[in-house]
Amino acid sequence: MELELFVSGIGGQGVQLLGKTLALAALREGRHVMLSGEFGGHMRGGSSVVTVVVGPEPIRALPKLPSAGTAIALSHSYWEKVGPRLRPGSLILAEETVADDLPDDGHRIVRVPAITLGTEAGNRLSSAMAMTGAFSELTGAVGIQALIDAMTEQLPSYRRQHAETNAKAIRLGAAFVRGQGAALSYPAPYLAREAAE
Fold it and tell me: What is the model's pTM?
Protein backbone atom coordinates (compact mmCIF):
# COMPACT_ATOMS: atom_id res chain seq x y z
CA MET A 1 0.00 0.00 0.00
CA GLU A 2 1.43 3.38 -1.00
CA LEU A 3 0.72 6.65 0.71
CA GLU A 4 0.43 9.51 -1.79
CA LEU A 5 0.52 13.04 -0.42
CA PHE A 6 0.36 16.57 -1.79
CA VAL A 7 1.58 19.44 0.40
CA SER A 8 0.48 22.88 -0.74
CA GLY A 9 1.34 26.34 0.46
CA ILE A 10 3.31 29.50 -0.16
CA GLY A 11 7.06 29.73 -0.60
CA GLY A 12 8.63 30.44 2.79
CA GLN A 13 6.11 28.40 4.82
CA GLY A 14 8.31 25.30 4.98
CA VAL A 15 6.38 23.25 2.40
CA GLN A 16 9.52 21.74 0.88
CA LEU A 17 11.08 21.12 4.31
CA LEU A 18 7.89 19.33 5.38
CA GLY A 19 7.94 17.05 2.33
CA LYS A 20 11.63 16.27 2.56
CA THR A 21 11.35 15.54 6.30
CA LEU A 22 8.56 13.01 5.68
CA ALA A 23 10.53 11.42 2.83
CA LEU A 24 13.78 11.12 4.79
CA ALA A 25 11.95 9.78 7.84
CA ALA A 26 10.35 7.06 5.70
CA LEU A 27 13.76 6.16 4.25
CA ARG A 28 15.15 5.91 7.80
CA GLU A 29 12.38 3.40 8.55
CA GLY A 30 13.26 1.25 5.54
CA ARG A 31 10.57 2.32 3.08
CA HIS A 32 10.80 3.37 -0.56
CA VAL A 33 10.13 7.02 -1.35
CA MET A 34 9.51 9.38 -4.23
CA LEU A 35 9.79 13.14 -3.62
CA SER A 36 8.99 15.86 -6.12
CA GLY A 37 8.79 19.64 -5.71
CA GLU A 38 7.00 22.29 -7.74
CA PHE A 39 7.94 25.93 -7.25
CA GLY A 40 6.45 29.21 -8.41
CA GLY A 41 8.59 31.99 -9.82
CA HIS A 42 9.09 33.78 -6.49
CA MET A 43 11.62 33.00 -3.76
CA ARG A 44 8.95 33.73 -1.16
CA GLY A 45 5.25 34.25 -1.65
CA GLY A 46 4.88 32.14 -4.78
CA SER A 47 3.26 28.72 -5.03
CA SER A 48 5.00 25.77 -3.42
CA VAL A 49 3.80 22.18 -3.82
CA VAL A 50 5.60 19.00 -2.85
CA THR A 51 4.57 15.45 -3.66
CA VAL A 52 5.59 12.53 -1.46
CA VAL A 53 4.91 8.86 -2.18
CA VAL A 54 5.91 6.25 0.41
CA GLY A 55 5.56 2.51 0.09
CA PRO A 56 6.96 -0.83 1.27
CA GLU A 57 8.05 -1.77 -2.28
CA PRO A 58 9.83 0.21 -5.01
CA ILE A 59 7.66 3.15 -6.09
CA ARG A 60 5.95 2.95 -9.47
CA ALA A 61 4.39 6.40 -9.44
CA LEU A 62 5.10 8.89 -12.19
CA PRO A 63 7.43 11.79 -11.34
CA LYS A 64 4.42 14.14 -11.54
CA LEU A 65 1.75 12.44 -9.50
CA PRO A 66 -1.65 12.69 -11.24
CA SER A 67 -3.70 12.08 -8.08
CA ALA A 68 -3.41 11.42 -4.36
CA GLY A 69 -5.59 10.46 -1.42
CA THR A 70 -4.09 12.80 1.19
CA ALA A 71 -3.06 16.45 1.27
CA ILE A 72 -1.74 19.08 3.63
CA ALA A 73 -2.87 22.68 3.10
CA LEU A 74 -0.72 25.30 4.78
CA SER A 75 -2.43 28.02 2.73
CA HIS A 76 -5.50 28.31 0.52
CA SER A 77 -3.46 30.29 -2.02
CA TYR A 78 -2.59 28.20 -5.07
CA TRP A 79 -4.89 25.37 -3.86
CA GLU A 80 -6.06 25.01 -7.45
CA LYS A 81 -2.73 23.26 -8.17
CA VAL A 82 -3.66 20.46 -5.74
CA GLY A 83 -7.42 20.33 -5.10
CA PRO A 84 -8.46 19.02 -8.54
CA ARG A 85 -5.85 16.24 -8.29
CA LEU A 86 -7.32 14.74 -5.09
CA ARG A 87 -9.32 11.55 -5.35
CA PRO A 88 -12.91 11.58 -4.00
CA GLY A 89 -13.09 11.38 -0.22
CA SER A 90 -9.45 12.35 0.33
CA LEU A 91 -8.07 13.31 3.74
CA ILE A 92 -6.91 16.94 3.97
CA LEU A 93 -5.07 18.33 6.98
CA ALA A 94 -5.58 22.09 6.80
CA GLU A 95 -4.15 24.87 8.92
CA GLU A 96 -7.22 25.95 10.86
CA THR A 97 -7.02 29.56 9.67
CA VAL A 98 -7.36 28.53 6.00
CA ALA A 99 -9.67 25.52 6.27
CA ASP A 100 -12.83 27.55 5.59
CA ASP A 101 -11.29 28.95 2.40
CA LEU A 102 -10.83 25.51 0.81
CA PRO A 103 -13.57 24.36 -1.58
CA ASP A 104 -16.01 21.85 -0.11
CA ASP A 105 -15.46 19.00 -2.55
CA GLY A 106 -16.60 16.16 -0.31
CA HIS A 107 -13.18 15.54 1.21
CA ARG A 108 -12.55 14.99 4.90
CA ILE A 109 -10.90 18.14 6.26
CA VAL A 110 -9.09 17.97 9.59
CA ARG A 111 -8.31 21.37 11.07
CA VAL A 112 -4.92 21.62 12.74
CA PRO A 113 -3.90 24.76 14.69
CA ALA A 114 -0.40 24.52 13.24
CA ILE A 115 0.43 28.23 13.56
CA THR A 116 -0.63 28.19 17.21
CA LEU A 117 1.39 25.02 17.85
CA GLY A 118 4.45 26.43 16.09
CA THR A 119 4.18 29.60 18.16
CA GLU A 120 3.86 27.50 21.31
CA ALA A 121 6.99 25.60 20.31
CA GLY A 122 8.86 28.89 20.07
CA ASN A 123 8.57 30.07 16.46
CA ARG A 124 5.49 30.65 14.31
CA LEU A 125 7.53 29.44 11.31
CA SER A 126 7.64 25.97 12.88
CA SER A 127 3.98 25.50 11.93
CA ALA A 128 4.96 23.23 9.01
CA MET A 129 6.73 20.93 11.46
CA ALA A 130 3.66 20.89 13.72
CA MET A 131 1.61 19.86 10.69
CA THR A 132 4.17 17.13 9.90
CA GLY A 133 3.77 15.67 13.38
CA ALA A 134 -0.02 15.82 13.16
CA PHE A 135 -0.05 14.12 9.74
CA SER A 136 2.27 11.33 10.85
CA GLU A 137 0.35 10.70 14.04
CA LEU A 138 -2.99 10.61 12.23
CA THR A 139 -1.93 8.42 9.32
CA GLY A 140 0.80 6.35 10.95
CA ALA A 141 3.02 7.27 7.98
CA VAL A 142 6.27 7.48 9.96
CA GLY A 143 7.38 7.56 13.56
CA ILE A 144 7.81 10.84 15.40
CA GLN A 145 11.45 10.19 16.30
CA ALA A 146 12.25 9.40 12.66
CA LEU A 147 10.71 12.77 11.72
CA ILE A 148 12.79 14.61 14.30
CA ASP A 149 15.99 12.85 13.19
CA ALA A 150 15.25 13.56 9.50
CA MET A 151 14.46 17.22 10.16
CA THR A 152 17.66 17.67 12.19
CA GLU A 153 19.78 15.91 9.57
CA GLN A 154 18.79 18.26 6.78
CA LEU A 155 19.13 21.57 8.61
CA PRO A 156 22.23 23.44 7.42
CA SER A 157 24.70 24.52 10.10
CA TYR A 158 23.47 28.12 10.01
CA ARG A 159 19.95 26.95 10.90
CA ARG A 160 20.76 24.29 13.51
CA GLN A 161 19.54 26.62 16.25
CA HIS A 162 15.98 25.85 15.03
CA ALA A 163 16.25 22.09 15.53
CA GLU A 164 14.94 22.07 19.11
CA THR A 165 12.00 24.35 18.28
CA ASN A 166 11.11 22.26 15.20
CA ALA A 167 11.32 19.04 17.23
CA LYS A 168 8.99 20.52 19.84
CA ALA A 169 6.56 21.57 17.10
CA ILE A 170 6.56 18.03 15.65
CA ARG A 171 5.75 16.61 19.09
CA LEU A 172 3.02 19.20 19.67
CA GLY A 173 1.39 18.37 16.32
CA ALA A 174 1.38 14.68 17.18
CA ALA A 175 0.04 15.41 20.67
CA PHE A 176 -2.78 17.49 19.17
CA VAL A 177 -3.98 14.49 17.15
CA ARG A 178 -3.64 12.13 20.12
CA GLY A 179 -5.62 14.60 22.25
CA GLN A 180 -8.48 14.59 19.76
CA GLY A 181 -8.74 10.80 20.01
CA ALA A 182 -11.63 9.16 18.19
CA ALA A 183 -12.80 12.51 16.78
CA LEU A 184 -9.81 12.46 14.42
CA SER A 185 -9.40 8.73 13.87
CA TYR A 186 -8.26 8.01 10.34
CA PRO A 187 -10.25 5.08 8.91
CA ALA A 188 -7.43 3.58 6.82
CA PRO A 189 -4.12 3.75 8.66
CA TYR A 190 -1.01 3.56 6.56
CA LEU A 191 0.07 -0.08 6.74
CA ALA A 192 3.56 0.10 5.23
CA ARG A 193 5.04 1.25 8.54
CA GLU A 194 3.78 -1.89 10.27
CA ALA A 195 5.26 -4.01 7.52
CA ALA A 196 8.63 -2.29 7.93
CA GLU A 197 8.80 -2.77 11.70
Answer: 0.89
